[in-house]
Amino acid sequence: MKGDVSGEINILKQINHSNIIRLSGFCLHQGNTYLVYEFADNGSLSDWLHVTDKNSKYDLVLEWKQRVQIAHDMADALNYMHNYITPPYIHKNLKSSNVLLDGNMRAKITNFGLARSVEGSENGDLQLTRHVVGTFGYMPPEYIENGLITPKMDVFALGVLISELLSGKEAAARVVDDDGKDEVAVPDGQLSEMVKEVVRGEDNVREKLAGFMDGRLRGEYPVELAYSMVEIASKCVAADLNDRPSVAEVFGVLDKILSSSLNWDPSDELEHSRSLSHGR
């Protein structure tokens, strides 16, 4: 890496968590800094969810339990950063390409180049920046519009990541621009808006959920638990940061969903569906 990376190194020296990438060492050579991290055998979450090469190992499909475990791992790491280290840190750059998977498909958050410490209350001291940097689809409205930085910024991004795990869709739809060269994000194609549609109103809930879920799961997921995950994801991406839960609350919900998922058998869902159809 070029430039000053002392901030990232200092953060990672303070952190010790199984779901955060471990910095093994670094060295300087001819003006460049080389950071050496633990190896994540299975690449990034983005590779698995948005694969384009049909011949790669990423063409394998993440199963329901793996997806819930990954969501739980990400929330665990953020809960640690927000509540268990002093001073607390906001990651600021959460996205599926910054979540790596180890040999056991356990998630590890990486890339702390934009992370910053936040002192004070649960919501953190309000910090403002004129230099808005990030990836479209993961950034909350208060940051895009006013440069406002709080821990709820990470909660928003976590909600988008949970939505990605559920749907297999990208955080923001993209189209090629008028020149036919660059891809540009489409504002009305944001996953954060799509997930809110699933829980909006009480009509056609099962159909809306089925339409939102990743087709590669082939319906092999517990409907009630999937809906619970959609609900918590939609709360995380609330437009008003005060309406979003804390990361500790999200972690608590995902903890229960993971426990229930570990006891779930795909054949149970098949029997459940059959009983529903016979009941009609």
Kindly state the mean pLDDT as a whole number?
A: 87
Distance between the termini: 62 Å
Counting H and I runs of at least 4 residues, what is the number of helices? 10
Which stretches of 5+ consecutive residues score pLDDT under 50? Answer: 275-280
Describe the model.
The longest helix is centred in the N-terminal third of the chain and has 20 residues, at 64-83. The protein has a two-stranded antiparallel ribbon with strand order 1-2. It has a two-stranded antiparallel sheet with strand order 3-6. It has a two-stranded antiparallel sheet with strand order 4-5. Residues 275-280 have low confidence and may be disordered. Helix 8 packs antiparallel against helix 9. A hairpin with a 2-residue loop joins strand 1 (23-29) and strand 2. The protein has 280 residues and is α+β, with helices and mostly antiparallel strands. Helices cover 42% and strands 14% of the residues. It has a single domain, classed as Transferase(Phosphotransferase), domain 1, CATH 1.10.510.10. The N and C termini lie far apart (62 Å).
